[in-house]
Amino acid sequence: MSSEHARQPVTMREVADAAGVSVATVSHVVNNKEGARIGEDARQRVRDAIHELGYRPNALAKTLSSGTSNFIGLVADAIATTPFAGQIIHGAQDEAWKHGYVLLVANTEGDPAAEDAAITMMLEHQVRGILYSTWFHRAVTVPEALRETDYVLVDCYEAGSTAPAVVPDEVQGGRTATELLIQAGHRTIAFINTTSPSPAQEGRLVGYRSALEAAAIAYDPDLVLNAPSDQEGGYAALDHVLTLDATAVFCHNDRMAMGLYDRAHERGLTIPGDLAVVGFDNQEVIAAHLRPPLTTVALPHYELGAAGIRRLLGDPNPSGKPILIPCPPVIRASIA
């Protein structure tokens, strides 16, 4: 029989749909998992669906006497295609390997159907658990299928729930960026924030204000500007910054700082001689190659991935709140 006419294998999801149960229930029946609380009626429906559909458990499932494997899943919306956020995968992979696990990665590009298929595949492979990650810090709704196994949210969280999560400490990051400028002697510090509502927008502003307060510098709302979080946003904001007599600027991200640099150079200003600048994110393709190289605060993507694995494998978190991962400073040459 040619491959184009070959019958596609029946999946565990199809068995679950036919039996009217969850994928996890089918998995428990197939693997004879001890202690699984499944009624005899549901068990029989699963057996009947297996027989009628011709489902064949894969070889991996047949060998799993414990009901779990040495795989951990990572489902991401786009981080595999973003240069700096791909470090989440790197951190998770390294930490999983330390504990004897192999990482299964699915990049869904935010497609709900692809996401559901990826989670189903991982459940069929009896993963130890799943990390669910987004390429920028935001609130998410946890997919129902994810609740059928242990999971940890990475770089995201579910509002109003105790779902396990690890996220960047945006407040600490904003405070650190501002402190770098204060420690260099600056007292009039502008903050160019993003126009996009997000934990980063809110948290970095809180951190900025906290650093000013700790240094006994009065908060001036006129020194806080909102701009699109891209190069053009930073470029357009500089002229306004200069009307404020600011000697230093904290930019919401490195792309905004790059635009600020462009406009400063056009106006004949030197960095850091005329204006000190700090960015955020540590996108090395930008920050390390500006002239002068940009001092910034890093998003801790590698540590987010590693911490997600540790949380999944049992690191305690009595608070029930998302675990905050510090954002470290990266000192270069943009502060006098």
Offer a quick outline of the entry.
Keywords: DNA-binding, Repressor, Transcription, Transcription regulation. The chain has 12 helices and 12 strands.
Secondary structure: elements and pairs:
Layout: H1 12-19, H2 23-30, H3 40-53, H4 59-62, E1 71-76, H5 87-98, E2 102-107, H6 112-124, E3 130-139, E4 151-157, E5 165-168, H7 170-183, E6 189-194, H8 199-214, E7 224-227, H9 231-243, E8 248-251, H10 254-266, E9 276-278, H11 284-287, E10 296-297, H12 301-312, E11 323-325, E12 329-330
Parallel strand pairs: 1-2, 1-3, 3-4, 4-5, 5-11, 6-7, 6-8, 8-9
Antiparallel strand pairs: 10-12
Domain HTH lacI-type: 10-66
Protein name: LacI family DNA-binding transcriptional regulator
Keywords: DNA-binding, Repressor, Transcription, Transcription regulation
Structural account:
It comes from Subtercola vilae. This is LacI family DNA-binding transcriptional regulator. InterPro entries: HTH_LacI, LacI/GalR-like_sensor, Lambda_DNA-bd_dom_sf, Peripla_BP_I. Keywords: DNA-binding, Repressor, Transcription, Transcription regulation. It holds the Pfam family Peripla_BP_3. The protein has 336 residues and is α/β, with parallel strands linked by helices. The protein folds into three domains: 60 residues, 434 Repressor (Amino-terminal Domain) (Orthogonal Bundle); 124 residues, 3-Layer(aba) Sandwich (Rossmann fold); 130 residues, Rossmann fold (3-Layer(aba) Sandwich), CATH 3.40.50. It is 39% helix and 17% strand. It contains twelve helices and twelve strands. Strands 2-1-3-4-5-11 form a six-stranded parallel sheet, with helices on both faces. A four-stranded parallel sheet has the order 7-6-8-9, with helices on both faces. Strand 1, helix 5 and strand 2 form a beta-alpha-beta unit. Helix 1 packs across helix 2, helix 5 packs parallel to helix 12 and helix 7 packs across helix 8. The protein starts with 11 loop residues before the first helix and ends in a 6-residue tail after the last strand. The N terminus is likely disordered.
